[in-house]
Amino acid sequence: MTNRSQLTAIILAGGKSSRMGEDKALILIQGVPLLQRIYNIAESCADTVYVVTPWEERYQHILPPNCQFIKEAPLSAGPLVGFAKGLAQVQTDWVLLLACDLPNLRVEVLQAWANQLDDVTTPAIAALAHHIKGWEPLCGFYRRSCLADLNEYINQGGRSFQSWLNQHPVQLLPVTEPGMLFNCNTPEDLANLN
Length: 194
Description:
Low-confidence stretches: none
Order of helices and strands: EEEHEHEHEHEEHHEH
Strand order of the largest sheet: 5-4-1-6-8-7-9
Distance between the termini: 36 Å
Structural class: alpha/beta
Shape: globular
Radius of gyration: 16 Å
Largest sheet: 7 strands, mixed
Helix content: 25-40%
Oligomer: single chain
Number of strands: 9
């Protein structure tokens, strides 16, 4: 059983939010900024939480003082590169990776998944949910030991989570509530939440 001290969380908050038309991380869901909501959930699962973003000053006021920011360049090469930057700071064997735009995230599901990490077979680099389009890379668990391989993939020009994951064994996480993985990307998505 994995406890909070054996897990680090990384939240990616570096996207442009161009489809939303405003910063997704600051959108209020039930009166709470989305990034703050995700941070609180991550903190329930892991002792250490990193937020990877170019905009630390934009988010400092909504996150606790002990939040650890990892600076990435604005308009960098996407979530895979942001994840690699965060993963380089991690000390635990496992890391929980979360996007900042998952309004339906449920802490009890993440904790149940975390409790299954001891059962993940050795060659698997990650434990992730799967859907029609492929793996759900921005809500799941990765071994810290995959960093060297990830950096090599990025250095060769790779930017796709799906392509990288498809080169490796990944353990499937059971999804009992598919709505939990809903990404809020557009004003329509937001309207459908309420």
